[in-house]
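Please, structure for the following, as tokens.
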Amino acid sequence: MDKNIKYIKVVILLLASLFMGWGLQVLTHDQGSPKEQAEINRLSAFQVKEFQGDRFLQGTSTKKTKSWTLDQLTDLEILLRDRNGKVKQVGNCLETILMKMGHPQEKILMQSNTDPKTTLSLLYRRETDGAPCALRLLFTKGRDGSYLLSEVDASQALTKKEKQEVFSEKVFNGIEVGEEMDLAKLLQSYKGLQTLILRQVETDQAGFHLVYRDEKAQEYVLEIEKVDGSYVLLRKGQVGVAPASRLG
């Protein structure tokens, strides 16, 4: 009996070590140190440094039935840094997002064993004609305790049109690096979109990271930066193939 108990303990310790080796901890009310629990409790009430009380959450019970638009996504400002890590654009703070978008359906605080920075993930869900839409916002915690928007995952945020062509190798080959693009038309014209993320794609520059998949399961990657109100293809590539880039 004692041997069985010892064996079970060893297995549990090994599994715990493996989990910690993945480098990711999801902090909830039931785990983490007292300091970490206090942090997630504060976030649950959104009583962080730049957020005061519940007054910004008024009216958030209204059901949203429309998907997000590209314009709404591009209105969001994300944290940008230069090559030396210096902040060039602060990004929307948590308070601003809550005022604009209301209370999320999911919030998770994450910490990496390899990176001391804390990340806050907010998930917003909507129902549009029976089709679920979701938008995930990632915030980086600053030294002053504030949370700044650093990435927007809009892979499931836009309504898909019924009549769309399949994104193909022919379409991919017809797009040139450095070419100005109509991003809204691209998103409306082709199906097979797997990933759409607003993030820093170049030094001091925000843009979109897109991944399309064709009927043969081939994946195509496009990185599009926004320059002076226009969208330009920064680089493109196929999964498993070295990407083409205007930077060489």
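The chain has six helices and 15 strands. The chain has two domains: 24-156, 165-245.
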